[in-house]
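Deviations from the work plan: none for this task. Representative record:
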Amino acid sequence: MTVAPKISYLDIKEIVLKRIKNFTWAPGSIMPGEIELATEFGCARATVNRAMRELAEDGYIDRKRKAGTRIKSFPTRKAKFVIPIIRDEIELTGATYRYALINREFRDPPDWLRTQMTIPQNTPVLHLMCLHYADSKAFQYEDRWINLNAAPKAVDQDFEEMGPNEWLIKQVPFSDAEITFSTINADTQVADLLNVTVGTALVTLERITWFTNAPITYTKLYFHAGYQMTSRL
Amino acid sequence: MTVAPKISYLDIKEIVLKRIKNFTWAPGSIMPGEIELATEFGCARATVNRAMRELAEDGYIDRKRKAGTRIKSFPTRKAKFVIPIIRDEIELTGATYRYALINREFRDPPDWLRTQMTIPQNTPVLHLMCLHYADSKAFQYEDRWINLNAAPKAVDQDFEEMGPNEWLIKQVPFSDAEITFSTINADTQVADLLNVTVGTALVTLERITWFTNAPITYTKLYFHAGYQMTSRL
DNA sequence: TGCCTTATTATGTATAGACATAAAATCCAT
DNA sequence: ATGGATTTTATGTCTATACATAATAAGGCA
């Protein structure tokens, strides 16, 4: 006799997802409860629960106590982009990573920066301009501002060898951040640095980083022409 | 006597995360095992397990059987963007959504599309050009291609009232997709449609959608100037 | 009819115990 | 030493049971 191998929560996810895609259970309708499914699959309710919990997380179903589980009519798809360490991103393509500091300046924060970071007028900041190369090609221009009240050790760093991101991550590896993707037409400065013609459309990524509610740093990254981000969902 | 309220897996997540951010456990080091933590918190191993599983999912720790759980030196941050239904995205801003079909044409697929969608040469496709308005302002231009072998019912749709995305989602609400964010300089056609000057940098989103491994549709969305996506991580 | 209280119920979480599994650590024979 | 087989161990998963909780449904009263 062959023994039926025990069903896993992954199997259940797969089966249920198939039924959803099948329209076995129509979009918008209530699907069977956990106990019913557990009986059908011959497993414990906890196993079904885990499968359903993950399907809800993936945006396929809505769950509510007492009301039951409902197939979403319009599944909420979430594109997840892993924000890579730039060195890794470049080395993954087989290219050699190189970093260069272009400028380093202590100064008062400009108004737009104070608004972005919500820091008071007298906050001392360090402004860095950096370039990241893939082989000999400019891959990304980094416009970096560091709040020196929040990260006073940055004063003693010359940032000649190590990029500010790598340095900051060593100081505070775990922090909160808000990132914004957008696009701009390259101005003369950026065009020159990234070796493109003025006006070229470039992907930009802005990031504000906090550590325990104190704004530490603001960055604007300008990617090389043709940069794109892909995600499966 | 006050009874200590039972600890939840969420409490554990919080406590452990605090210790990680604290450097109580150094980045790169091994942290205590599940049994040890369960003892410390006075709860079952399963409870600790769930907390740790989610922290791993969130990119803070790495877990390996036998080897134990290690604090990541470089946490992998994932930016999650919810891909909204355009009608919802526009109506959420308080504006009125309006859709307009610009052109509809049956034709053979151009070479670049066949490459993108991996469909054979003789596949009949429907090419649609659509505009999505927020109030009277052009919000997004949609360049849509539908594989008529995969979605034959599209032949009978005039797409005058309902946009192709809404229609397709009703046909197959749950499908797989690959999306790519990028940027382009507006050409004369797009500039005209979105009412910007030629060369303006625009955010674009390309999406290929499959249903049970059959490529259904390819879209390229051109957003209005100044469009940006923000995510917290 | 309408409002408030109470019961019901599906999901949410916790637990102790068990077995599975991947991978490191050890041991052994060559 | 070196390669291969074996043991050990931390995480991965499943089960049966229990209680918690949110939200709907039902009941009762004015």
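The mean pLDDT of chain B is 93.
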